[in-house]
Design brief:
75 residues
């Protein structure tokens, strides 16, 4: 599976409402993690992208676990 990090807001159906605030400028729009088909993964609350000189870029995505669209499985 290929995951894509892209800005949200161009398509109102492509992002979690929690990520978009009224009055946002186009460059203020946050990033969200999307599947290959272009659909944003559900219930994203926050994304953070960081890097250290000479190190890899790290992306952290925070999800709201609701037990329906996002759940925890396993022991």
């Amino acid at each position: 599976m290929k995951l894509i990090l892209k800005r949200v807001g161009a398509d109102p159906n492509s992002a979690s409402p929690a990520l978009i605030r009224p009055g946002m400028l186009i460059d203020d729009r946050p990033f969200a993690l999307h599947a290959e088909d272009g659909e944003a993964l559900p219930h994203q609350i926050r994304t953070n992208m960081s890097s250290e000189p000479g190190g890899p870029v790290t992306v952290t995505v925070v999800f709201m676990v609701d037990g329906d669209l996002v759940s925890v499985e396993g022991p």
